Amino acid sequence: MTKEKQTALILGGSGRTGSLIAKQLTDGGTQARTASRHGSQVIFDWDDLGTYENALEGADGIYLVTPTMRVRYVEPIAKFLDLAEAASVSHVTLLSTYNGDRAPEDIDVAAVEVQVASYEGFTHTILRPAWVMQNFTDEHLPIVDDLLIVPSGGGAEAFVDALDIAKVAAETLLSPDKHAGATYSLTGPQAITFDEVARTIATVSGRSVKYHDIDEETWINGAIAAGVPAQYGEMLRWLTGSIISGHGSTPTGDVEAVIGRPATSFEEFARRNAAIWTK
Ligand SMILES: NC(=O)c1ccc[n+]([C@@H]2O[C@H](COP(=O)([O-])OP(=O)(O)OC[C@H]3O[C@@H](n4cnc5c(N)ncnc54)[C@H](OP(=O)(O)O)[C@@H]3O)[C@@H](O)[C@H]2O)c1
Known about the structure:
Blueprint: E1 7-11, H1 16-27, E2 31-36, E3 42-43, H2 52-56, E4 61-65, H3 74-86, E5 91-95, H4 109-117, E6 123-129, E7 147-149, E8 156-157, H5 162-174, H6 176-179, E9 183-186, E10 192-193, H7 194-205, E11 210-212, H8 216-225, H9 233-244, H10 254-259, H11 266-272, H12 274-278
Parallel strand pairs: 1-2, 1-4, 2-3, 4-5, 5-6, 6-9, 7-11
Antiparallel strand pairs: 8-10
Helix pairs in contact: 1-5, 3-4, 7-11, 8-9
């Protein structure tokens, strides 16, 4: 970002990574403006074009979080990025997903990566995180009756700490020239199974948490019955299918390459958050 104009617009500003990035930036002396529908400094709604220009006012860098719980969203993102380019934004850091370039065509993950990279007016960085460790501490993958229930077929995943994603994202916004055109696959230091996750949670919380594998379609149908939009089932099928087929994420070292310290292990994360599971 230029010295004269250092405001980063943080979309998804009330979310897991966005809220942490804003803190990283302000701690580093750079202005961050969080934006989302609720709980941010500025109201921003992907479904309301009228909120785009106000959010972009004075912004030099952007952390781009796509709308959640849907699979088609490249059109509003293109409209937003057209306005961002016209407003002289100089860098966009996109939060994508691990293997985003290989996402199924009926999910707009790869299409958004291509869209972000298509502008000449600003540079970009693409972040492709593995499954986030915070899935186990929020409503995504809760421990219910001491059971962790997720389809995995015994496959492993190199879960990453959202705080590490936030640190990498903040770094790309603070030194965009250094990270222009880069794609980072953000993972933890080890690929571990869900059984290992449950055992680690049991150790740090003192509860007898166990992992229970489940049929993928049964799990997805359960999520839809619980309120997840039916079209989002396709995303869940892709994410769980990768792990079941043995193609879950593997450690990359990209977190350490950007922030200069090793990625957080699941055990460290679990110890830091033990109180959540002991309640
Ligand atoms: N969970 C994982 O394991 C994982 C792994 C890799 C990548 N990802 C990607 O991470 C992204 C989510 O990022 P996150 O975890 O930092 O956020 P998050 O905690 O899921 O929160 C989503 C953020 O986006 C905002 N938002 C949702 N819909 C919106 C809309 N229509 N208009 C404006 N803002 C909207 C939410 O605020 P409001 O609801 O108040 O608007 C919130 O601030 C997703 O794209 C997901 O694919 C997740």
